[in-house]
Write a structure and sequence with these properties.
Oxidized Rhodanese, domain 1; single chain; oxidoreductase; five-stranded mixed beta sheet; Alpha-Beta Plaits; globular; alpha/beta
């Protein structure tokens, strides 16, 4: 059986015809059996999808035929099984939600740093390295000397900047995220706030792991990804983490030994916040999924999110 091709892509570009583009993309994906998520907004496109090599090539060709997608940030990987359960092609206000008006990365953003030179920024004592991902992502892996804003959502990043950063004290900032998209917005925002030197890792952690030799690789832990793989290791193989279907948090092998972990029901991160009634509903949902599987029927099961 052929491996499934997973394509992660994004581009900030003006799309005033976003509704019509959404319809065309959905039709193509349905026709080719593509699954995953594509987000379309007037500011651009963002998504991760999976399908056969031919199907993903058709989607890629359709996007590149539109001159607005020149320079599309695009990355392919392979997996034995499709990491998505369904297709979602959605219109959004933002392709990555910051919630701040007049943030336009297509017009201006920070200086790209490729994976080969990123280590020099990590070693620069005058550079503040910031992980723009959310707390649950940072918890399973990061660059060793990076600062985490401890945000629950990316829309909390501007408040972190206002509370903790000062252009006069931290003029040189380098940022990274999973695939690069959050740093596009974060760098634009920092420049608007008066920060003079703003750098971000082009292609994000995933590009770094792909490009940097093992002996030079400074990544520690695993990298959270927004599909059924949950995490990847330094070699971009599926990691040890699994997803708690109750709270959407990654759970480690150690977490899964905890008495509060029950697959599909709860984990050490969320057990205390759940009622017994919620856990009972989750157990019934899992029972229905297993019954459907035993009968050879398809059951969508829990939803997946795209970050």
């Amino acid at each position: 059986m052929s491996a499934v091709v997973i394509a992660a892509l994004y581009k900030f570009t003006a799309l005033p015809d976003a509704p019509a583009l959404r319809d065309r993309l959905e039709q193509l994906c349905l026709a080719h059996g593509i699954k995953g998520t594509l987000l379309i907004a007037e500011e651009g496109i963002n998504g991760t999808v999976a399908g056969s090599a031919q199907a993903i090539a058709a989607l890629h060709d359709m996007l590149l035929a539109d001159p607005r997608f020149e320079g599309l940030e695009y990355k392919e990987s392979q997996h034995q099984d499709c990491p998505f359960l369904r297709l979602k092609v959605r219109l959004k206000q933002e392709i990555v939600t910051m919630g701040v008006a007049e943030v336009d990365p297509a017009s201006r953003n920070g200086t790209y740093v490729d994976a080969a030179t990123w280590n020099a920024l990590l070693d620069d004592p005058d550079t503040l390295v910031i992980d723009t991902r959310n707390d649950y992502e940072v918890a399973i892996g990061q660059f060793g000397n990076a600062i985490s804003p401890d945000t629950k959502h990316f829309r909390d990043f501007p408040e972190y900047v206002q509370r903790h950063l000062d252009p006069a004290k931290q003029p040189k900032i380098a940022m990274y995220c999973t695939g690069g998209i959050r740093c596009e917005k974060a760098s634009h925002y920092l420049l608007k706030q008066g920060f003079s030197e703003v750098y971000h890792l082009k292609g994000g952690i995933l590009q770094y792991l792909e490009d940097v030799a093992a002996e030079d690789n400074r990544w520690q832990g695993e990298c959270f990804v927004f599909d059924e793989r949950v995490s990847v290791d330094k070699d971009l193989n599926q990691g040890e983490h699994r997803l708690c279907r109750a709270c959407r948090q990654p759970v480690s092998a150690q977490d899964r030994l905890n008495p509060h972990y029950e697959e599909g029901v709860s984990c050490p991160h969320c057990y205390a916040q759940q009622s017994e009634a919620n856990r009972a509903r989750a157990r019934e949902r899992i029972r229905q999924v297993r019954l459907a599987k035993a009968r050879g029927e398809h059951h969508l099961g829990p939803r997946e999110d795209h970050g």
